[in-house]
Design brief:
Protein name: DUF5986 family protein
Number of domains: 1
Pfam family, one: DUF5986
Order of helices and strands: HHHEEEHHHEEEHEEH
Number of strands: 8
Helix content: 25-40%
InterPro entries: DUF5986 (IPR046028)
Radius of gyration: 18 Å
Organism: Paenibacillus chitinolyticus
Structural class: alpha+beta
Distance between the termini: 50 Å
Strand order of the largest sheet: 1-2-3-4-5-6
């Protein structure tokens, strides 16, 4: 397919809603939670931010236009997929650094959910200007077992959607000291190469509601924790929040 014809058909006000959901989770929601709870330590800040991001997205996007689906990734993690009922585009959010880690894997031992979702764009070619030179890719994407696992993961994640998915878009973001530094919407292909990208920085709204920053939650620390997110949290069915497992807390402490 000609990548020049690609676009992301989302109205600007919806882009702003998604970005505000991420921004509020990373600063205002975390600050309010910490002031109300008055916890002595704050080891689970990264995972708490994702609970707030998911909650904000579900509660602020209009349900007549979007279907937000909570998807469990084993017993340890839960993500939210955003399905546009009109355009049939599927969206998810992820930190930019985490996407780079996944896209730069030389060996793929297991199917990550981004691998499965990006297979919806398997007809797209990588944009050479958006993809840095990679080392030799040591995996055969035509592997039968791999493709069967991709299809299995897709069925698990998408069976509740109200329609088919025509494209998958990943909203990637980076933060710095609780503030959103950048937001991009990308279409990764099956090899996690970027086929199309839109910069959404113009939709980042200024937040003057908080006059101070949380101590000890720099972007460097957040990214360090993120590497182990699927193995470091426990999801509670009747609680909007997640907490670190006891052994993970001992490891971090």
């Amino acid at each position: 397919m000609d990548n020049n014809t690609l676009s992301i058909p989302m109205a600007d006000n919806y882009k702003t809603i998604i970005i505000d959901a991420i921004r509020n989770a990373n600063k205002k929601d975390i600050m309010e939670f910490r002031m109300e709870r008055k916890v002595e330590t704050f080891n689970s800040v990264h995972f708490l931010k994702w609970d707030f991001i998911n909650t904000n997205i579900i509660r602020t996007l209009p349900s007549d236009q979007f279907q937000c689906v909570k998807v469990k990734r084993g017993p340890l993690w839960e993500l939210v997929l955003i399905y546009d009922k009109e355009t049939k585009y599927l969206y998810a959010a992820m930190q930019e650094k985490r996407f780079r880690q996944l896209s730069e894997r030389l060996y793929k031992e297991t199917v990550h959910y981004i691998d499965a979702l990006s297979s919806k764009n398997n007809d797209l070619e990588a944009d050479v200007d958006l993809n840095p030179a990679k080392q030799i890719y040591l995996f055969d994407t035509e592997n039968v077992d791999w493709n069967e696992q991709v299809e299995y993961e897709l069925k698990l994640m998408l069976h509740l959607l109200e329609g088919e998915v025509t494209r998958f878009v990943l909203v990637t973001f980076s933060t710095d000291k609780g503030e959103i530094a950048s937001v991009n919407a990308i279409m990764p292909n099956a090899e996690l190469e970027i086929a199309y990208e839109e910069n959404w920085n113009e939709f980042i709204t200024a937040d003057f509601s908080t006059a101070f920053e949380l101590q000890g939650t720099t972007s460097e620390h957040e990214e360090e924790i993120f590497v182990g997110l699927r193995e470091g949290v426990v999801s509670h069915q009747h609680d909007d929040l997640v907490q670190l497992r006891n052994d993970e807390m001992e490891k971090e402490g």
